[in-house]
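As the next step, I selected for study a record pairing a protein sequence with its backbone structure tokens, which the following lines show:
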Amino acid sequence: MTEPQVWTLIAVFAAVMLGSMTLVTRLTGRVLTSAIDGVRSEISGLRGEMNARFEAVNAEMGARFDAVDARFNAVDARFDAVDARFNAVDARFDGVERRLDGVETRLDRVETRLDRVETRLDGIDADVTALTRRVIGDDTA
């Protein structure tokens, strides 16, 4: 083979290699592009599915929190009713206490009067004894 033929063969070989590399690069690029597009569509589908699930979870949690809030409101209402009843009982006890204080004051007055009556009766007893001695003349008593 002559030198120009060798150079031609090298050039043809280089052209074939360059063409092959270009073809492989283009095919690889197309494959990667289609794979990336597939991954993007999968991610997009997953995003939609996850958003739907998150919305469902949010709705369920919202409903549960609303139910818990309703229960707490009911408990608060019951506690308010119990507080009102306790306040009414306290007011009644205060009234009873005032009435008992009045009764105690009246009993103290009655006791004072009874002490005075007892003192007077003791005085009358002494007078009756003295009169009896004088009238009957009994010196033994």
